[in-house]
Design brief:
mainly alpha; Rossmann fold; N-(1-d-carboxylethyl)-l-norvaline Dehydrogenase, domain 2; 3-stranded mixed beta sheet; 13 helices; 8 strands; disordered C terminus
């Protein structure tokens, strides 16, 4: 994501200085006219606005507070846009550190993948002070087709976690419906043709349906990242039947399919069809109202002692 987004800024006429922990990743941008910095500390001294996009809370903290981190140089008057998909808590922690040095902070994660980054059609959801958002909006306009401030610090992070909760649920739902249809003798290409021409049609379902048809699971968005995002959503209060089920299913799949695309969850769903169904006897006095089934097994809670399948 960083390379196509940086290319958009260069094409927009912005002077760009780049840093990456993997130095080789900067070379293509330098060849296109960007300058390079040797550390985050040097980067913030050379620029007015810093955009960061890293994998998780730990990486954010390292970029900010490491030995050569963004705030280690003691500079002030800068503006940092954190476009990572991370927790609202890390944004609130970082904004407090920034305020001590008169540095402005905006969380502004994105929805979209490499294709949208290349064409400048990302959706950007921001959290932070309104005047800070307005100041950097021309930069964000170069990167996205919709740029919206959804609230104060951390609100952008929460909006992104909500988006990715839906992403996980839809990916699992598509996979389950494909497997169900296939197990009942319906060809996958026929089923997906129905979906793509009906009321449920969407660009995402078509893209991921094509990936299933072609057995293509190289990561556009790695499965391990949805596990991380659903986990963050749960820590931020997500506690719903579908959200919890999606998290547990993807978490179970992570050990085997972490580096594959999110739609590789279909491989985990397919395993369930080969497992023997489990029958449970339960009473409302002995078990909670509901709990998630493991893979294909049936777990049912009865209001009184009866047999359910």
């Amino acid at each position: 994501m960083g390379i196509p987004m940086s290319q958009r800024l260069l094409k927009g006429g912005y002077s760009l200085t780049v840093f990456n922990r993997s130095i080789g990743k900067c070379e293509i941008l330098v060849s296109l006219g960007a300058k390079s910095a040797s550390s985050p500390a040097e980067l913030i001294q050379l620029t007015d606005v810093v955009i960061i996009m890293v994998s998780d809370d730990k990486a954010v903290r390292d970029i900010f507070t490491g030995k050569q981190g963004l705030i280690s140089s003691g500079v002030s008057g800068k503006l940092i846009i954190n476009m990572s998909t991370v927790s609202p808590e890390i944004s609130k922690e970082m904004v407090e550190l920034c305020l001590k040095q008169s540095i402005h902070y905006l969380d502004a994660p994105v929805s979209g993948s490499v294709k949208q980054a290349e064409s400048g059609e990302l959706v950007i959801m921001a959290g932070g002070e309104e005047d800070v958002f307005n100041e950097v909006k021309p930069i964000l306009d170069q990167l996205g087709k919709l740029i919206i401030r959804v609230g104060d610090t951390g609100a952008g992070n929460l909006a992104k976690l909500a988006v990715n909760t839906l992403l996980g649920i839809i990916s699992q739902g598509l996979s389950e419906s494909v497997v169900f249809a296939r197990n009942n003798g319906i060809e996958t290409h026929d089923f997906l043709n129905i979906i793509n021409n009906g009321a449920m049609s969407s660009a995402y379902l078509k893209i991921k349906g094509d990936a299933i048809l072609q057995n293509r699971f190289e990561a556009a968005f790695a499965l391990k990242h949805i596990v991380k995002d659903l986990g963050l959503a749960r820590k931020s209060g997500l506690n719903s039947p579908l959200g919890n089920t999606a998290y547990e299913t993807f978490k179970e799949a992570e050990s085997e399919f972490a580096e594959e695309d999110i739609i590789a969850i279909i491989k985990e769903i397919e395993k369930g069809g080969n497992e023997k169904e489990t029958v449970w006897f339960a009473s409302k006095t002995t078990l909670p109202n509901c709990f998630r089934c493991r893979r294909g097994a049936s777990f049912v809670v009865a209001s009184e002692e009866r047999r359910f399948y």
